[in-house]
Amino acid sequence: MYTRKNQRDLTRTEKRRLVEAILELKRSGRYDEFVATHLRHYVPDGGGGPRAAHMTPSFFPWHRRYLLEFERALQRIDPGVSVPYWDWTTDNTPAASLWADDFLGGNGRIGDRQVMTGPFAYANGNWRINSRITDGKYLTRNLGRPSDPVGLPTKEEVDRALGEPLYDAAPWDSGSRTGFRNHIEGWGAGGPDRWRNHNRVHRWVGGLMVGAASPNDPVFWLHHAFMDLLWIRWQRAHPGAGYLPSRAVPESDPQHGRIFALDQPMPPWGVTPAELLDHSRLYRYA
């Protein structure tokens, strides 16, 4: 059992050890394998084949296992390391502690959005982008998107999602109008609610955090640790509600063979959502 802390509560030593473990994972080539895994499994509604990671009920269990795999890789380098979480409802400006030079580094510069500060700046020689969709070998960010401002989600917006009594609902994709999963993952019909919660955070960070190659920015892991914590909070608030769909959808359903019910193994690990509902024997949140 280990603890995932709020990033703002990390000591200077804890930050240093986490950064060093991430950089070592990058040097080994394993970090880029994690990015490639996310690229491979980011299948949108209209894409072909199974959809395990996004726009799908298994968004939460898939990312829980993905985060655990990443954390275990870090712990093979330094057993005392765990992934902290970023509560973006509180630490919601470019001046927040996670963007400091001794941790994740700051915003991208005007023009090409290249991150020039911190341990993940390309100029420091330790962070070259290898797994990507677009060209570019350096980490990019555009915090808050000043030219077309976007704000981070508020506690009230998160609370509305946590108040959803159902986990998910048909059509089990980005078009689901009810259910905690899509309200917190953040796909909307358009207008000001087009991007909500999880999705809006990706857009607020900008740069490489927008799109399937988003794990290229180490803040991805802190963001998804907080998403994992929000899933736990929803489970505690709705103890009688469970993962849906509980059974495989029928062959007549367009999602048949594309989404994962409670006991259907998810790629690439072959684990079911049911196996990932309870985190309590592995880690806790401070």
Structural write-up:
By secondary structure, this protein is an all-alpha fold. It has a single domain, classed as di-copper center containing domain from catechol oxidase (Orthogonal Bundle). 31% of the residues lie in helices and 2% in strands. Strands 1-2 form a two-stranded parallel sheet. Helix 3 crosses helix 7. The longest helix is centred in the first third of the chain and has 19 residues. The two termini are 12 Å apart.
The CATH topology name reads di-copper center containing domain from catechol oxidase
User: What is the CA-based Rg, rounded?
Assistant: 18 Å
Strand order of the largest sheet: 1-2
User: What is the approximate shape?
Assistant: globular
Describe the sheet with the most strands.
Answer: 2 strands, parallel
What is the annotated CATH architecture?
Orthogonal Bundle
List the domain count as a whole number. 1
| Helix and strand composition category | mainly alpha
Low-confidence stretches: none
Secondary-structure element order, N to C: EHHHHHHHE
Binned, the helix content reads 25-40%
CATH top level is Mainly Alpha
**What is the distance, rounded to the nearest whole angstrom, between the alpha carbons of the first and last residues?**
12 Å
What do the pLDDT scores average to? 94
Q: How many runs of DSSP E, i.e. beta strands? A: 2
